[in-house]
Amino acid sequence: MKFRLQTRFSITIVSLIIGIIGLLAGILLFQFWSLSNRMILTSSEKMSGTLLDQMQRRGETIARLLADNLVNPLYTYNINEMYELLSTVRHQQDVSFAYVYDADGSIIQDGTKDVPQYGQLLPDAEDRIALGRGAPLRRQLRHNTLEVSIPIEIGDTVLGGLLIGLSMDGIKSEISGVLSDLDAIGQTGLRQNYTTVGLTAFVLVILGIVGALSVARHLISPIRELSEYAGKVGRGEYGERISSHRGDEIGDLINAFNHMSQDLRETTVSKDYVENIISNMSDPLIVLNPSGQIRLVNRATATLLDHPQDALINWPVQAVFTQAERPRLDALMAQLEQNGSLPHVDSEFMTRDGNAVPISLSGTHIRNEKTAQQEILLVAQDITSRIREKEELSRAKESAESANEAKSEFLANMSHELRTPLNHIIGFTEIVVDQHLGELNDIQAEYLTDALGSSRHLLSLINDILDLSKIEAGKLELSTARFRIGPVLENSLIMVKEKASKKRIELKTQMKALPSEMTADERKVKQILYNLLSNAVKFTPEGGCITLAATTLRIDNGVASASELNGLQIPTGDNGAGPEDGHYLHVSVTDTGIGLSAEQLARVFNPFEQVETSYSRQYEGTGLGLSLTTQLVQLHHGIIWGESPGENQGCRFSFLLPLADDGGWPSHLARYPVTSLARHTADTQLSDH
């Protein structure tokens, strides 16, 4: 049968001498009151300090783990991956908020879909941004919330930071309740003790001494046990429980302590939880003690090195690196000691079989709270695939460059070797056709004229191949000079006038606001004009019309400002950018020929490309004309494009050459990408300027 504390006092003190029990009871009650107050005070201070310390360690642990995992998402600005990491943390009961902010202190992600608050500036933004240049971690209490902020860095560059808030409300409320219960229990016990002592003080004095001593031991022993247990809780040892079968107030106090320990264990990050995160990291992780010995490795490290995880413990860190890297490792450790962190550097691990594994290594200092020593955290990333890809790309580049050089040299040599005998064939054939060596009959004249035309066509193709190969090899240079642009444009029509007249094709010109002179390679400009005009003549049926138009225009934000062009839209490149603003010579060749579809027009600028139509295949050619023309325009830092409403509706090919007041062209203009020319094609109504 169990008795309450009041009953035990009554039964014991009745048997004691009233005088002695009164004195000893007074001493006993004073000790009980003093110990109870000290216990409650000590428990309050230790619990408060312990909880705050635990919450700080929890915040630091979460912040450091998240910061390491947020480096790549923040560097690549991967919002979804940031959201996944932060939302996992926010699901924990005591996490009030978690923000990732950029180097300006503005919120990027908070683990929710609350988009309107993104971009807001954090409180004390300047202090948080300065973390990368000062302390590596910051903790502060604000509005009953423990805030932990840490920078997110790559090397010496601060990408931004992480701010985590842990609420103290639940723990403070729990501590307040426990301390209130302890105080109420103590006050109740004291009142009961006073009553019992007063009633039994008149009972037997001699028996009271013995009873009082027995009661004192009985009461003080569990209080001492509770005090020792409070000290263990203060040191973070939550696993033990105080066994008690008492049904009195002391038993209630012991049960309250046991419940408090259980609640603390459930609301604090456990060692198993942290070790589980480290163990499941995909990148190798090594923790070194201050003497450079391995204290902890995760599963990824053991797998990469092909060693059992436990076997690596207490190894010197040099043992996991290759022989060639060990001398350099001392310098890296010294750099880490001096700077407090180690940026990503390339190194090599050595497996159990002696094979080298290339890695990217980074490190930082961490504090072991138990030993109060600075330990070293090393994180590695296997970069074998990255190095292999780099080597393959290098080999592919060398192979391509070698093949391209061989091709260019072959084309140049063969073109030269073929052009020399062709010039002889053309020269001697012209002498015979002109009947300088005697008269020819009609059949001989016809055959020799065909042979002369074929030879000239073949020489033209060889010249195009030679020029194209020089451009691809980077050996074709411009010979720039000032020249009059008007005569060059007019003479270009003379070069195709004979062919046009044979097909009864009308040639028109529209020249407005032309500059008197320009600086460019005159021969190349003539070749550009001849190629476009000869193509127009070739693909325009009998009785058609060809218009050569030219003018000066200014481009502002990709739009031609000349009034005659009615706001001509200049095509943009694949990156969405058009030509630089400035003055340009605009030349266009418009025909009433066979026309092109959008798909066909997108391909005609490629080398050896010919449009596959029944009409166009009636004409000879290799498809080099427009490709060579494009290259020549780009050498002048100009652009070229084509337009056509569709098949049998004619074409217009236009090009721009930059003009400059100093006689040259703007050196900052980049060559226009050929692939962009396919964008400005279909559904275009062609008309003269």
Give your account of this protein's structure.
With 689 residues, the chain is of the alpha+beta class. It has helices at 5-14, 18-76, 79-90, 125-129, 169-200, 205-234, 249-267, 271-279, 299-305, 326-339, 384-433, 442-472, 485-502, 522-538, 598-601, 625-635; strands at 95-102, 107-109, 138-142, 145-154, 157-167, 285-288, 294-297, 341-350, 356-368, 373-382, 481-484, 506-512, 517-520, 545-556, 559-560, 582-591, 639-643, 651-658. Strands 12, 14, 15, 16, 17 and 18 form a 6-stranded mixed beta sheet that branches. A 5-stranded antiparallel beta sheet has the order 2-1-5-4-3. A hairpin with a 5-residue loop joins strand 6 and strand 7. Helix 1 packs parallel to helix 5 (169-200), helix 2 packs antiparallel against helix 3 (79-90) and helix 6 (205-234) runs parallel beside helix 7 (249-267). It is elongated, with a radius of gyration of 46 Å. Residues 612-617 and 662-684 have low confidence and may be disordered.
